[in-house]
Amino acid sequence: MAQSLTSHRPMLAVGLKLAALLLFTAMSALVKALSDAFPAGELVFFRSLFAIPVIIAWLIWRGELVQGFVVKKPMGHFWRGVLGTSAMGLTFTGLSLLPLPEVTAIGYATPIFTLILAALILGERIRMIRIGAVALGLLGVLIMIWPRLGSTQMEAAATIGALCVLTATVARAFVQIHIRQLVKVDHPAAIVFYFSMTASLLASLTAFWGWVMPTPEQALILVTMGLIGGVAQILVTSSYRFGQASMLAPYDYATMLFAIFIGYVWFDELPTMAILLGAALVIAGNIVVVWREHQLGLERGKARSLTDHKP
């Protein structure tokens, strides 16, 4: 019998998840620091291209390199790449226009939009508890972006940034729905590998709109950004080998602490009360969704157990 690739080691799972989240936040800070010098498309290219060697090395170590190359739905991976690359580009644009903690907070809306799209596209049933969670999350989003919906020229850039990040959360929600379909026919290793490949290719097309030749120091930072993104992607994937998704989900919100600290130290930024209040409501809505999913999982497990024990 083949040995299972998963095991229950919660402390290791949490450690891997937190390390991944810290690296993702650090990568976002590097993107923000470089955004004045480079267009978003060029940043997406370096982020995606230099994650590929890390991913290939990881697949070789896991013995999954073959699975990483074989796909049954190539166009499904293409569209996953289009959606994911668009989300990344919009987020990087938002980072150039908004404080790091604000971009992080608005990004928490992704699970809320995923739940809405799951009902609209996949026909999943949403009962009153999850409807309330969605309403709470959407209220939080409205509170966060409302101060950015100004009319002065100075506020216009921030408005564009907020709308870019909000659109990116919707695009990532579509990605989550799309991945649910892809994993039914293709290996997760293939999904990870071909996304980086597709994102690199699509981002390279933006060179026609003007890229900037980096200095050696800037090139080193760009490469480092991609390597950090690849390592973070592997760490967060590995964390789910040792802990359940419902257990690890609340730790996603540690990124707000990381973003506040890095934003203050590096960019002299602090979140406003509107951002903190809105983020708290979105987080509360997400936690209710995670709790409800956990409860439904227990109920399904109990029902299967009763069925299996029938004479």
Provide an overview of this structure.
There is one protein chain. Helix 2 packs across helix 5, helix 5 runs antiparallel to helix 9 and helix 5 packs across helix 10. The chain is 77% helix and 0% strand. The longest helix has 36 residues. It is built from 14 helices and no strands.
Annotation keywords:
311 residues; mainly alpha; 14 helices; disordered N terminus; disordered C terminus
Strand and helix map with partners:
Elements: H1 10-34, H2 40-49, H3 52-62, H4 65-69, H5 74-97, H6 100-107, H7 110-121, H8 128-145, H9 153-182, H10 188-204, H11 216-242, H12 245-248, H13 254-267, H14 273-308
- What is the number of helical segments per DSSP (H or I, 4+ residues)? 14
**Sheet bearing the most strands, described?**
none
- Binned strand content: under 5%
Overall pLDDT confidence: 86
What is the element string, with H for helices and E for strands? HHHHHHHHHHHHHH
Number of strands: 0
Structural class: mainly alpha
| Rg (CA only) | 20 Å
Low-confidence stretches: 1-5, 305-311
Bulk shape: globular
